[in-house]
Every structure is written in structure tokens, then in C-alpha cells.
Design goal:
The protein folds into three domains: about 70 residues, Arc Repressor Mutant, subunit A (Orthogonal Bundle); about 55 residues, Arc Repressor Mutant, subunit A, CATH 1.10.10.60; about 140 residues, Orthogonal Bundle (Tetracycline Repressor, domain 2). It is mainly α and about 300 residues long. Strands 1-2 form a two-stranded antiparallel ribbon. α1 crosses α3.
Length: about 300
């Protein structure tokens, strides 16, 4: 984001001593002109530095670099690990995991840039704490009901709801390197208990769990990708498709089935709804397991 880049540049100049304590910081108007941004964006950058205690407004002087005493005394009263984690989740939900930084979280909390490090060693640990908290937002009945299929469906829908609430969760790591998170293990135990009723050996049980989890995660990956595409392009899904129409029509040459599908869709309309794709795929997956294992 542009205001973060402007703040980073000013922060670097302050750290290097190019802007010593008491030095006047470029005005909002000057920053807007130099960086080719709106006045509001420039103002947001200065507000971020003010929250970090790096700059302060002085009567008749404008915005100046704060003295070291003020920076050291920037309050972090009431700061806890839980507050840091919840604030970080809010940032990731709204802007994606790529936008998350320790400084950004500190700014949101209105504390000094280094204050969160008293509670979290860095961004890597913070992301794991965020993921564990997010996966723990929904659980399961203490007394399971229904057959294996009903319980596995509940497990899939529960995970899907969490991925929809926190799209960044699906981006955290490859399936081959599972996250050692207590609350993620809760979802794993629920799915494994249901799948174990298929009466398979341990290796097959593990394979089936990987298949189930990767299906849910695989659909969920597109949630944040669409969010990122919208942010970077400024185009909605419908607007993007409209712009691709000439290219899609050119692709149909010599592909009669593809061409017929597009003609039919053009007449009847089509909305890609991931909720519907998820439900349809879940039913197909469970139908296949039922046939394969006689259940």
C-alpha cells in the first residue's frame, strides 16, 4: 500500500539521522506531490508514524520528528498477546497476509513499533498464533451424532466456514508440511474419527484424511486469490470476465464443446459461486468413498 511505503521511507530517514529529533517532516502536500498520491494517502502515512511515536505535531511548525524521550514513552498500556493476535487477524482478514507486518499491527494498536516484540518474537510466530486462534473459533459437538458421512460433512463445512471468514488460512503452507497447531489438530481428530469407520489401515486412513483436507483447502485457496486480484486490478469478477470475452471467443476455434458451453452460458448466464462448488465437490468425494469402501 502506498501510504505504508511512504511511512517506511520516512522511518528510514529518521533511523539514519537524516531527519533528527525536532526536524520538520515534509508536509502532507509535499509528500503527495513527491509520491504522486492523494493528500489523504500522504496524511495516512504521517498518522501511522504519529501512532508509532516517531513524529508529532508542533504548533506553527507542522509535523516534526519526535524526541527520543517521547518515542520511549509511547504507551503500550493494556497490550497483551491476545490483543496483538486479534488485531493481526483483523489486518489479514481485511488486506491479506502479505499486508501484515509487526509495525502495521503496532500502528493499529497505537503503540510503539517495538512494543509487540515484548509478547511475540516476530511475524512468523505471530502468523502461527493467528492461525491457531482462527482454527479454534469453531468446534464440534462433545457427543458426535450421525454416521461417518454426516460427521465428515460437518467437518468439511466447519473448515470451509473458517476459511471463508479468514481467507489467508488456506495460504499458510504446503500440504506436505502440516502445521503443528493444537486447534487444527481438533479438526483433524474429528475427520479421522469419521474416516476410521471405513475400517482401513493406518496408512490408508492418513491418505484419506489428506485427500479430505486438501479438497477443502484447495477450494479455499481461491478465496484470498480473488480478494488479491480485486485489490490489485480494481475489477470485480464480472468486470474481468467481460474484458476477457474477445480472448475467450478466439479460444473456441476448433473446440466445439468449449464453444457450445460458452454459447449456452451466454444465453442462460452463469455465476461461479464457490459455496456451490464446495458442496457439489464434497458430495462427489463422499459418494466415491462410499462406493470404494462399501459404506
Amino acid at each position: 500500500m502506498k501510504y505504508v511505503a511512504i511511512a517506511d521511507e520516512l522511518r528510514g530517514r529518521i533511523a539514519r539521522g537524516e531527519l533528527p529529533p525536532g526536524a520538520r517532516v515534509p508536509s502532507t502536500r509535499r509528500l503527495a506531490t513527491d509520491h504522486g498520491v492523494a493528500m489523504a494517502t500522504a496524511a495516512k502515512a504521517l498518522a501511522l508514524l504519529s501512532q508509532e511515536g516517531l513524529v508529532q505535531a508542533e504548533p506553527r511548525s507542522g509535523t516534526v520528528v519526535a524526541g527520543r524521550e517521547r518515542r520511549a514513552s509511547t504507551s503500550h498500556h493494556g497490550l497483551t498477546r491476545e490483543r496483538i493476535v486479534r488485531t493481526a487477524i483483523d489486518v489479514a482478514d481485511a488486506e491479506g497476509l502479505a499486508a501484515l507486518s509487526m509495525r502495521g499491527v503496532a500502528a493499529r494498536l497505537g503503540v510503539a513499533a517495538m512494543a509487540p516484540y515484548r509478547y511475540v518474537t516476530g511475524k512468523d510466530e505471530l502468523v502461527m498464533l493467528m492461525a491457531d486462534a482462527a482454527f479454534g473459533e469453531r468446534g464440534y459437538p462433545s457427543t458426535p451424532r450421525g454416521d461417518w458421512r454426516e460427521r465428515l460433512t460437518l467437518g468439511g463445512r466447519t473448515l470451509w466456514s473458517l476459511y471463508k471468514r479468514h481467507p489467508w488460512l488456506a495460504q499458510l503452507g504446503p500440504l506436505t508440511r502440516p502445521l503443528a497447531l493444537r486447534n487444527l489438530a481438533m479438526h483433524g481428530e474429528w475427520a479421522l474419527a469419521a474416516l476410521s469407520e471405513l475400517d482401513v489401515d493406518a496408512a490408508t486412513l492418513c491418505d484419506l484424511h489428506v485427500l479430505f483436507f486438501s479438497y477443502v483447502q484447495g477450494i479455499a485457496i481461491h478465496l484470498e486469490r480473488e480478494q488479491s486480484a480485486l485489490a490489485s486490478s480494481g475489477l470485480s469478477e464480472e468486470q474481468w470476465i467481460d474484458r476477457q470475452t474477445p480472448a475467450l471467443e478466439a479460444m473456441t476455434a476448433g473446440r466445439p464443446v468449449f464453444a457450445k458451453m460458452l454459447r449456452d452460458l451466454g444465453g442462460n448466464g452463469y455465476d461461479l459461486v464457490l459455496d456451490n462448488v464446495f458442496e457439489s465437490g464434497m458430495r462427489a468425494l463422499l459418494d466415491g468413498l462410499a462406493l470404494r469402501y462399501g459404506r
